[in-house]
Specification:
Blueprint: E1 12-15, H1 26-39, H2 48-60, H3 72-84, H4 90-107, H5 112-122, E2 126-131, H6 136-146, E3 154-157, H7 158-161, H8 168-178, E4 185-189, H9 192-201, E5 205-209, E6 229-231
Parallel strand pairs: 1-2, 1-4, 2-3, 4-5, 5-6
Length: 261
């Protein structure tokens, strides 16, 4: 498990979501594209290919715009205008939003050892989640569906933050919410750029989770930093010495919804 020794006491453990706590692969992305395409209805002639192309470009956009997130409502408005040539109506936006959230939540499966591991870790230290996803409501709804919400003292999603990992502001928001020093946080994630390099350059310690391959593959460069740990099973975290921070903020951030009702 260990590629380097942990260099500082760990007072909080923060996790990425997709391909760290749950698998999120190309098949699940394709299912979301299919459902969103069908949500336009038979009277609106749109092709699956045009929907997939537009969603794919918006998914990659933060890596070309300085790591700024594009909120879900804006993505859906842009999608409708691009594939239909017309502005989106409130009815369309509600239908697309519902189709996405229902499909996303239904596609997520949790392996039994993940919940038991998080529950065991939560008894020993403070846990948090920091996820790149343009629809915060989908993340929160899936956490509730899987019974994970109570495991985390803080849940932060890129739609609410306005930036995606590896932007340093995402990690500073995490550290501020946990009321610890950056080096006291162990960040567990799969994405080499967003999670590993982002967290390391923000001063956090990192466990690179390598069980699943993310849909986006990033090549390593000669200037990349190396994580302190590499994991293929989250249960390996149970062997680490962990401690609670002295103080915490009184409650997790309020879930915000930048979308349609």
């Amino acid at each position: 498990m260990v590629s380097q020794a942990l260099q500082h006491p760990v007072r909080a453990v923060a996790f990425d979501y997709g391909n760290t706590l749950i698998q999120f692969n190309r098949q699940q992305l394709d299912g979301i594209i299919d459902r969103i395409t069908s949500a336009f209805g038979p009277g609106v002639p749109v092709s699956r290919e045009s929907v997939a192309d537009c969603l794919g470009r918006m998914r990659r956009e933060p890596y070309d715009n300085g790591f700024h997130e594009v909120p879900w409502l804006i993505q859906m408005e842009r999608l409708v205008r691009e594939v239909t040539g017309q502005p989106a109506s409130p009815v369309q936006l509600r239908a697309l939003d519902r189709a996405h959230r229902e499909t996303f939540v239904a596609s997520i499966q949790l392996e039994p050892e993940v919940l038991s591991t998080l529950e065991a870790l939560a008894k020993r230290t403070t846990l948090a989640l920091l996820s790149n996803y343009p629809c915060s409501a989908s993340i929160h709804e899936s956490l509730r569906s899987l019974g994970l919400t109570s495991c985390f003292r803080q849940v932060l999603v890129s739609e609410d933050l306005g930036v995606v990992k590896p932007h340093p502001r995402a990690f500073s928001a995490l550290v501020d919410a946990l009321v610890v020093r950056p080096e006291e946080v162990l960040f567990v994630g799969d994405n080499w750029v967003a999670d590993v390099q982002g967290a390391l350059r923000a001063g956090l310690q990192v466990a690179h989770f390598r069980r699943w391959s993310p849909p986006e593959i990033h090549e390593r460069s000669a200037t990349d930093l190396e994580p302190q740990l590499e994991l293929r099973d989250l249960r390996e975290l149970l062997d680490l010495p962990l401690a609670r921070p002295a103080t915490l903020r009184p409650s997790a951030p309020t879930e915000s919804r930048r979308g349609v009702a």
